[in-house]
Specification:
With 179 residues, the chain is α/β, with parallel strands linked by helices. Helix 1 packs across helix 2. The chain starts with a strand and ends in a 6-residue tail after the last strand. The strands form two sheets. It has a six-stranded mixed β-sheet, sandwiched between helices. Bound molecules: inosinic acid and magnesium ion. The site of inosinic acid (IMP) has 14 residues, from strand 6, helix 3 and strand 9.
């Protein structure tokens, strides 16, 4: 598959992806069996993952879609992130963030700090992909679908410059394209 200037090859097919998602959902169903959960899906990337995993969740739950927006700070430099789309109070709630991929961990770090301010009863991250070699955060996500190498992936919500999100499989950047 070619997206913009790069070639990608099949990495994870639809059936494998769905089986892994069912397994993740079963773990969440077991761990939160007596709880009411607020799922926060991070746009844009997590839209497909959120949709599929939530169909397998049998818990009492709420679902919201959130986005981290950056804007120029009033101070000299540096990006300030703000959370948009969150219109309920999370105090005392069991919150699970649904992410497509945790790479350096910066995005999740901002999100966790912003949500922590609302004093949820508990707060965990459930991500479809995790890149340990790129991760610079302190705590790795508790719920992980696939632990993968640093190679760039697209499809199933993930994009390469906005292309590839609609694919039902996941593709990886071709090795020879790395150099
Ligand atoms: P982090 O803040 O470095 O953890 O990166 C998180 C964001 O970077 C993700 O939500 C994606 O939008 C993007 N990203 C990181 N790695 C990939 C990848 O392999 N494919 C597509 N997007 C990626
Ligand atoms: Mg994302």
């Amino acid at each position: 598959m070619k997206l913009h200037d790069k070639e990608f090859e099949l990495f994870i097919g639809e059936d494998a992806l769905q089986s892994e998602i069912v397994a993740l959902a079963e773990t969440l169903n077991a761990n939160y069996h007596d709880k009411h959960v607020v799922f926060l899906a991070v746009l844009n990337g997590a839209f497909m993952f959120a949709s599929d995993i939530l169909k397998r969740i049998s818990l009492s739950c709420e679902v919201s879609f959130i986005k981290l927006a950056s804007y120029e700070g009033l101070t000299s430099k540096g990006e300030i992130q703000k959370l948009i789309g969150l219109n309920q109070n999370l105090a005392g709630k069991h919150v699970v963030i649904l992410e497509d991929i945790v790479d350096t961990g910066q995005t999740i770090h901002f999100l966790l700090n912003l949500i922590e301010e609302q004093n949820p009863a508990s707060l965990e991250v459930c991500t479809l992909f995790y890149k340990p070699q790129a991760f610079k955060g302190e705590n790795k996500p508790k719920y992980i679908g696939y632990t993968i190498s640093n190679r760039f992936v697209v499809g199933y919500g993930l994009d390469y410059n906005e292309l590839g999100r609609n694919s039902r499989e996941v593709y990886q950047l071709k090795e020879e394209a790395l150099n």
